[in-house]
Amino acid sequence: MSNRTSELTSELSIEATRLPTGPVTRISALVLRLAVAYLWIENLDWKVPPDFGQGDRAGLWAFTNGSIAHPVFSPYSSFVESFILPTFVPFGWLVYVAEIALGVFLLLGLATRFWAVVGFVQSFVIYLTVGAQPHEWPWTYVLMMLAHLAVFALAAGRVAGVDGWLRRRAAGGADARLTRLLLPLT
């Protein structure tokens, strides 16, 4: 084994065990990751393909239009009106696939830090969309952003997730290209 490979293996061994530590932290990270994954999966039920509520003016269509009637940030509302609504069905599919992926990847604990960032951004966009609408509690979306930040900070996929398996595999000297490519996302 070369000196550089030995150094990398040593670094990965340390990193593989660095986050999270302690049983309470590990269990909390796992429960949080699974809860956030379930949140995304559960909330797919009102984003119904193929028109995502456009035909009956409900669901994703209604909430997206609400960002124009009740803007949180006027430039965002203008963007929705000018670009999102004219291409609503492809936008609906993008949201649907992104939220399925968020749920599945967080559930598996695969590329968890990457998906935590995606979830943070998606939660922020949802806040911009519905944060000022009647009967919405804007703090819901702030809490969602904070939950994703915690999943990221705790590297929650390393607890009972594929990320932890990948890290242990790499720390054990496995020379798999895919493993090395995925490590920065864990």
Structural features, described:
The chain has helices spanning 3-18, 23-42, 59-69, 74-84, 88-108, 112-130, 139-154, 162-171, 177-182. The chain has one domain (3-185). By secondary structure, the protein is mainly α. 70% of the residues lie in helices and 0% in strands. It is elongated. Helix 2 crosses helix 7. The mean pLDDT is 89. It is built from 9 helices and no strands.
Number of domains: 1
Q: What's the average pLDDT?
A: 89
Q: N- to C-terminal separation?
A: 25 Å
Order of helices and strands: HHHHHHHHH
Assess the beta-strand content as a share of residues. under 5%
* Rg on CA atoms, Å: 20 Å
Based on CA inertia axes, which overall geometry fits?
elongated
For the secondary structure, the number of strands is 0
Q: What fraction, in percent, of the residue positions are helical?
A: 55-70%
Determine the number of helices (DSSP H or I, runs of at least 4 residues): 9
Secondary structure category: mainly alpha
Q: Low-confidence runs (pLDDT<50, min 5 residues)?
A: none
